[in-house]
C-alpha cells in the first residue's frame, strides 16, 4: 500500500483530517508540481519539523495497525435476565388466573343460595319460640291476676301477639342476614384479588433488582466501547497536530523554454 492509498483509507475510517492534512512526502519533501507554458516552473516545498517526524511515523504505523485490526465483538451478556422475584410474581399471577380464588368461589356459591332462596337461619326458630314463650308467660300471669281466662277477646289478642312476635323477628332476621351476606359478597372481590396485588408487588421488587443489574451491564458495555475507541481517539489527536499547519513552506520558480511535464 503506497502513501496515497494510506491517506484515503485513513480518511475513510477516521472521518477527520487524518492523512489528508499531512503533506504527500517522500523523505521530508513534497513532490514538485510543474506548470505548463514557457514561463517557468513553480515548486512548492513543505517540510515536517524534525520534532514531528517520530509522531508522523507512529501515526502511520498506528493507522496501518488499526486498518488491519479484526472486529472484536462484545461477548458478555447485554441484557439482564428475569430474577427469582419476577418469576415468583409471574407464577403467582398465572396460578391465580388459572385456579381462581376460593374466596370468590365461596361468595359465588353464597350468592346463588340467596338467589335460590334456600338459606335459613338455624337458630332463628329457637329465638322466636323463646320470645313467644315470654308472651305466653306474660299473658298467663295477667289472666290469672285478672281472672279473665275465658275472655275470647283476650285470647284473640294473645294469638295476635304471638304472630306479631314471630313475624317481626323472622322479617328482621331475614333482612339482617341478607344484608350481611350481600356485604360479604361485595368484599369477596377485594380479598380474592389480593393474590394479584401481592404478585404485582413481587414483580415490582424484582424490577428494581433487574434495573440495577441492567445498569451494571450497560456500564460494562460502555467501558468496552471506550476501550475499543481509545486508539482511534489517540490517532485523531495526533492527526490534529498535522492539521494545525506546522512546518515551513517555500516557493521557488525556475524559467524554462519549453512546457513542463
Q: Would you kindly provide a written description of the structure presented here, covering whatever features stand out?
A:
The chain is mainly alpha-helical and 261 residues long. The chain has two domains: 3-77 and 229-254, no CATH class; 102-192, no CATH class. It is built from seven helices and four strands; from the N terminus they run αβββααααααβ. The chain has helices at 3-14, 53-67, 84-99, 102-116, 124-146, 152-192, 194-242, and strands spanning 25-26, 29-30, 41-46, 249-254. The chain has a two-stranded antiparallel ribbon with strand order 1-2. Strand 1 and strand 2 form a beta hairpin. Helix 5 packs antiparallel against helix 6 (152-192). The protein is rod-shaped and about 155 Å long. Residues 14-33 have low confidence and may be disordered.
Amino acid at each position: 500500500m503506497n502513501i496515497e492509498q494510506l491517506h484515503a483509507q485513513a480518511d475513510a475510517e477516521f472521518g477527520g483530517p487524518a492523512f489528508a492534512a499531512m503533506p504527500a512526502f517522500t523523505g521530508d519533501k513534497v513532490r514538485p508540481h510543474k506548470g505548463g507554458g514557457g514561463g517557468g516552473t513553480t515548486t512548492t516545498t513543505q517540510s515536517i519539523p524534525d520534532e514531528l517526524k517520530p509522531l508522523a511515523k507512529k501515526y502511520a504505523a498506528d493507522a496501518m495497525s488499526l486498518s488491519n485490526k479484526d472486529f472484536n465483538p462484545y461477548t458478555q451478556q447485554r441484557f439482564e435476565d428475569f430474577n427469582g422475584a419476577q418469576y415468583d410474581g409471574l407464577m403467582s399471577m398465572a396460578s391465580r388466573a388459572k385456579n381462581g380464588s376460593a374466596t370468590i368461589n365461596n361468595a359465588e356459591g353464597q350468592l346463588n343460595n340467596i338467589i335460590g332462596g334456600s338459606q335459613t337461619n338455624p337458630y332463628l326458630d329457637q329465638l322466636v319460640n323463646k320470645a313467644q314463650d315470654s308472651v305466653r308467660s306474660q299473658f298467663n300471669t295477667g289472666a290469672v291476676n285478672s281472672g279473665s281466662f275465658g275472655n275470647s277477646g283476650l285470647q284473640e289478642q294473645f294469638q295476635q301477639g304471638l304472630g306479631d312476635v314471630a313475624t317481626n323477628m323472622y322479617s328482621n332476621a331475614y333482612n339482617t342476614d341478607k344484608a350481611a351476606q350481600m356485604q360479604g359478597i361485595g368484599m369477596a372481590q377485594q380479598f380474592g384479588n389480593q393474590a394479584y396485588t401481592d404478585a404485582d408487588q413481587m414483580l415490582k421488587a424484582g424490577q428494581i433488582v433487574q434495573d440495577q443489574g441492567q445498569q451494571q451491564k450497560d456500564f460494562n458495555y460502555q467501558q468496552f466501547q471506550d476501550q475499543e475507541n481509545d486508539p482511534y481517539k489517540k490517532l485523531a489527536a495526533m492527526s490534529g497536530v498535522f492539521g494545525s499547519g506546522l512546518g515551513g513552506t517555500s516557493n521557488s520558480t525556475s524559467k524554462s523554454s519549453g512546457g513542463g511535464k
